[in-house]
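Dear Dr. H.,

I hope your travels went smoothly. While you were away I took the liberty of generating a structure for the chain from your last submission, since the lab meeting agenda had it listed for discussion. I wanted you to have the full record in hand beforehand rather than looking at slides cold. The sequence, exactly as received, is reproduced here:
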Amino acid sequence: MKLTSQQKGAASFATVMPQGVMDLFTGVHSGFDAIPGMLGSDVRERGKVDGLASGVREAGKGLVHGWWDGITGLVTEPIAGGQKEVSLRLTICTGKTDLRELWVS
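The corresponding predicted structure, in token form, is as follows:
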């Protein structure tokens, strides 16, 4: 049985549409995955996905690590920011004190 041009077009559409949707979601995922790196946080490397089994494994690891990093980040990120701020304030205060001592002397 020979396919007509309409049947070939329908077959092509049926195979190209899912690929386009998958490419769209992959692009959105990659964009959201890059946001923490642009904001200065550490980003975990993803493993290669070759098929369904490796995809499910990477999705599970990503979900668990995402929740873990999100919950622990609520504690560790403010502490790290506070340590940077405290060291900056100590440096500024020490500098002001040294300048006052030089000015008064």
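Two observations you may find useful: The chain has a mean pLDDT of 77. Residues 52-104 form the longest helix (53 residues).

With kind regards,
E. W.
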